[in-house]
Amino acid sequence: MTLPRTPTFSLNGKRAFVPGGSRGIGLGCAMALAEAGAHVTVAARSADQVEEAAEQMRGTGYAADGIALDVTDLPAMEAAIDAIGPLDILCNSAGLARHSPALDTTPEDYDAVFAINVRAAYFMAQYSARGMARGGSIIQISSQMGHVGGIDRAVYCATKHAVEGMTKSMAIEWGPKRIRVNTICPTFVRTPLTAATFANPDKRAWIESKIKLPRVAEVEDLMGAVLFLASDASAMVTGTSILVDGGWTAG
Fold first, then answer.
1. Would 166 be classed as within a structural domain?
2. Active site residues
3. pLDDT at position 56
4. Number of domains in the chain
């Protein structure tokens, strides 16, 4: 009898790119990949934040660098991906939310959110996949709002539903090239960006009423899902989403 062995979670020798990786969820994604052995390039618009994140990661012993990048500038993003070199892993955490009642949505807010959450995410995946000659893993940080609706979140939900749809289509097209495409869909996660939301008693009560587990999410709750989708442990997983939502969408 030959006993089966768990596929490796090691990312030694892998090259990873994490847009939006200088803080919050994106920094957690970058650390999860770096801890497993990948060389990680983090990107964000703020050069100072990018360099601070990369420097701290290097100071802890990980292989990391950073680039200042506006992901809505498609030529600059394509050039950056080409310069980094053939990628094994793309973990896109860049995103934008501008919430308002659907009756009050402005064209400017609509365009800004779609430009980052859909347009940039789409072409980022395309540019990365072109160089994945030996296969790879593309991970989009989506949202539980890609599976449900939310008050004052019509635009945001629309973008995340779009990400879920394009992920399935890309997975079908690129599967023969051994490129896997998946999403991670978190609930509300405690980060500096969500501090004001959690500080509002009514909003926090609403969030806690929707999450079935008895606490809110932390950045660390996403890191295992990122590592799983980036590694050989998920070699037969593509075109799907991992909901890290504490049971929000189950109810």
1. yes
2. 156
3. 97
4. 1
- Element housing 40 (H / E): strand 39-44
137 Rama sector, left if φ>0, alpha if ψ -120 to 50, beta otherwise: beta
73 falls within a domain: yes
Q: What is the pLDDT of residue 192?
A: 87
CA 46/CA 238 separation, integer angstroms: 32
pTM of the complete model beyond 0.85: yes
Burial 3-28 (b: 16+ CB within 10 A, else e): eeeeeeeebeebbbbbbbbbbbbbbb
Closest CA to 145 of 215, 71, 238, 207: 207
Task: Provide the pLDDT for residue 251.
Answer: 86
Q: Residue 87: inside a domain, yes or no?
A: yes
Q: What is the pLDDT of residue 193?
A: 84
In a domain, residue 1? The reply is: no
What dihedral angle (degrees, nearest 10) is formed by the CA atoms of 96, 220, 45, 118?
-40
Query: Tokens 């490796």 sit at which residue?
Result: 8
Domain residue limits at 223:
15-189+217-245
| Residue among 25, 84, 21, 29 at smallest CA distance from 53 | 21
Q: How far apart are CA 193 and CA 125, in angstroms?
A: 25
Q: Which pLDDT score is estimated for 247?
A: 97
Residue 237 neighbours by CB under 8 Å, 6+ apart: 180, 182, 228, 229
CATH number at residue 229: 3.40.50.720
What pLDDT digit, counting tens, does each position of 152-188 carry? 999 999 999 999 999 999 999 999 999 999 999 999 9
pLDDT value of residue 163: 98
Q: Which parts of the chain have pLDDT scores under 70?
A: none
